[in-house]
Specification:
mainly alpha; globular
Length: 240
């Protein structure tokens, strides 16, 4: 019940954040010149950045305070891991509603974002409901540090900054560095720990969902980096 309340509070919070951001940028020249779809994409990216800041910092601090989250995630569930997972669960529900309501990410392989969110919400909700495996998910959320620069880059470019500007180039470099350190390394480590901890799982369904989910996430990570290099090769776009 507590986790459900935290998720609900987070859902409301991120809707409030999106509304507040929209009020702060209303009337600004660069924002008013955006067409409807790029405007909604910018607001979505800005709200997603706020979640990345909260969950990326929170998950990293949890791993720092409780190193066993990384060394022995099967035994490391605690109040902190459940809270950060519940907050992120609320965010992903918010984001799924937002992108569906405004019909964002409808082109080509972007439909994978919807599939990603549905899978994440299912896994997070199951872990919270059964009070298990939240340490694995908290370690997974360390990747949100990389999203500071993923969403931050989108926010910067949509304000009119050229992709070739110093700040955007610096953001791209930091994106690639943090992708290696905070996304690929933790996710491959989780995949390894799941195999190592296989005999600890009394419920084969839990292991199957966790293991296949991490395979899917690692595939999506590779696709994310592929799309990054493709977008840079195509050149800057204001509506990117």
């Amino acid at each position: 019940m507590e986790a459900a309340l935290v998720s609900l509070a987070a859902l409301v919070f991120f809707f409030a954040v999106r509304w507040l951001i929209s009020q702060l940028v209303k009337g600004r020249g660069w924002f008013e010149t955006l067409q409807a779809q790029p405007r909604e994409l910018w607001l979505n990216s800005a709200a997603s950045l706020s979640h990345a800041l909260v969950s990326g910092a929170g998950a990293s601090l949890l791993v720092y305070w409780w190193p066993n989250i990384a060394s022995d995630p099967f035994e490391a569930d605690n109040h902190g891991t459940r809270t950060i997972v519940a907050i992120s669960n609320g965010y992903f529900i918010y984001d799924l509603i937002d992108i569906f309501q405004h019909r964002l990410f409808m082109k080509g392989s972007q439909w994978l974002i919807y599939a990603h969110h549905v899978v994440v919400i299912f896994c997070f909700s199951m872990a919270l409901n059964e009070n298990t495996l939240t340490a694995y998910l908290s370690l997974n959320l360390v990747c949100e540090v990389n999203n500071w620069f993923l969403h931050g880059g989108k926010v910067l470019r949509k304000t009119g900054l050229a992709a070739t500007s110093t700040i955007c180039r610096l953001n791209d470099v930091l994106f690639l560095i943090t992708a290696a350190v905070f996304r690929f390394a933790p996710h491959f480590w989780i995949q390894y720990k799941l195999v190592e901890d296989y005999n600890k799982f009394s419920n084969g369904l839990h292991f199957g969902i966790a293991f296949s989910g991490m395979i899917a996430i690692n595939i999506l990570n590779v696709m994310l980096i592929r799309d990054f290099f493709i977008s840079r090769a195509r050149g800057p776009k204001r509506s990117e």
